[in-house]
Amino acid sequence: MNDAAPPPQPQAPEAIEQSLYEVRHKIHPRAVSGWFATWRWSLVWFTQLIFYGLCWVPWHGRQAVLFDLAERKFYIFGLVFWPQDVFYLAILLIVAAYSLFLFTAIGGRLFCGYACPQTVYTEIFLWIEKKIEGDRHARIKLDGEPLSARKFSRKAAKHGAWIAVALWTGFTFVGYFTPIRTLASEVTNLSLGPWETFWVFFYGFATYGNAGWMREQVCKYMCPYARFQSVMFDPDTLIVTYDAERGEPRGSRSKHDDHRSSGKGDCVDCGICVQVCPTGIDIRKGLQYECIGCSACIDACDQVMDKMNYPRGLIRYSTENAMLKKWGRKEIIGHILRPRIMIYGAILVFIVGAAAVGLASRMPLKVDVIRDRGTLAREEDHDMIENSFRLQIMNVSETPRRYTISVSGLAGIEIESDRVVDIPAATTRSVVVEVHAPAGSGKQEFNRIYFEVKAVADEKIAVREPASFIMP
Amino acid sequence: MKRLVWVLWPSFVVAGVAEVLFFTLIDPQELYLFGAPANFSRMAVYSFGFFGFWAICAASSLFTCFIQRSPDEVNVCMAAATCKDRVRP
């Protein structure tokens, strides 16, 4: 950023104090309707019904999806994840990353334009703004007016509605980490814990700030994805494109003019594509990093083209190659299946498949063996050596189970303490196990032994863990 | 404002990642504070932990911003009798 600074002039330092940043001009996006807007709204509904609704779905007496931070257990319907399952979190992140690569390579910033929370909440907040303050022109006018009772009441109503949505969003967010029904009764009783209260307000404030105030600045200045998106683009990536060859030279004209004979292109230069743009850019200048691929300009331009009785698609989804080689829809679709896409797709299918197999064959029992750090080995009478271990037994399933513990690996080795342990559903229990072995049964120092923990009701649920038995 | 965003925003993102990694591996109840077991609720430790990570990461971002100034900017600042005329990038 400093590269852009002009060379300072030490002779007259007082002359160089100036802000080097463009002043942000508030953008008043004009509402738009059309095919892509309908898609975006469908995705707003889809994602938000899941987000606001899923936390209320019950499942066998508990919340179906709950990331219980206090208990360090993540519940997703029938699955319970423990910190030991961090592997699956890594898989999830890899799948998310590859999906992003895949979708970006095919259709540009599809995620940004349709599914990114920043877009989704901005869309909801813009809808509220439009309902209360009116569309673009009314809002520009209202912002230009001096403060009056009318302006104040409109603004207050808007911010009130925004804050209500933001707080509900914050409450829902926290409801994924603390059981939401408990949270709701705590809110109604005004007995919400300090940290829950804090995070509801923190997340609510972030939503209000990002969707109400920051808007396109989040995409332009804060989002890392916007900066490296071009790495995933290639000449066959579908991007929102202005057909300059068809549109230029642009200019206004009457609907009945034969603009071709007067040397004009199809662009009537109405500027609506700029007015509807949530990041305030002019798509006619070509691909810009600020473009979030929301296609609002496509919808807007198509409507203008319809009014002018020109063919649609002056601004459309197209690819660099298609523009150069004048491909039609068929060739563009034909080029979607290219090596890059197939490689991304194959990796994605493989990882998802492997994770699914891993999940399906997951052992609902985990055992960690920890040596007693206090005493290494103890000589008992009758030439027996005792080692003690602590077995951390995790019942990862949702049914309480009884397990037997056995040990093997040395002649005559056996467990002196309890060999049967009952563990409730989704619980960890630490069991101290005293193991005896005859003094001559192994070599001095470390001997490999194995603990086997087996469910009584189901022989298949069994875990064999190695450990070291120390002979003095 | 821009500088504030540069410092606070990347550190927020990195603090989030650090928080997830750290607390996935370490149970807050196994932590010790000044030699005594930390007797706070897990929610409290997670929250303090996050803001701790954020503060540390922000300090790093701030330092980056500080040393990012070009030699010219530093010289202008040193040449001036007072520092009030420095270039603000």
Structural overview:
- The complex is a heterodimer of chains A (472) and B (89).
- Chain A is an alpha+beta fold.
- Chain A has helices at residues 35-54, 86-107, 110-115, 117-133, 136-144, 149-174, 180-188, 194-214, 216-222, 224-232, 244-247, 272-275, 296-308, 320-325, 329-334, 339-360; strands at 58-59, 62-63, 65-68, 73-76, 79-81, 239-242, 315-318, 365-371, 378-379, 384-395, 401-408, 414-415, 420-423, 427-438, 445-455, 462-471.
- In chain A, the strands form five sheets. In chain A, strands 8, 9, 10, 12 and 14 form a five-stranded antiparallel beta sheet that branches. A four-stranded antiparallel beta sheet of chain A has the order 13-11-15-16, with no helix packed on it.
- In chain A, strand 3 and strand 4 form a beta hairpin.
- Chain B has one domain (2-85).
- In chain B, a hairpin with a 2-residue loop joins strand 1 (32-33) and strand 2.
- In chain B, helix 1 crosses helix 2.
- The N and C termini of chain B lie close together (11 Å).
- Classes of the chains: A alpha+beta (472), B mainly alpha (89).
- Chains A and B meet through helix 8 of A and helix 1, helix 2 and helix 3 of B.
Low-confidence stretches of chain B: none
Instruction: Give the termini separation of chain B.
Output: 11 Å
Low-confidence stretches of chain A: 1-5, 8-13
Strand order of the largest sheet of chain B: 1-2
How far do the termini of chain A sit from each other?
67 Å
Instruction: Classify the secondary structure makeup of chain B into a structural class.
Output: mainly alpha
The overall average pLDDT of chain A, rounded, is 88
SS strand fraction of chain A: 15-25%
Helix and strand string of chain B, N-terminal first? HEEHH
Portion in helices of chain A: 40-55%
Helix content of chain B: 55-70%
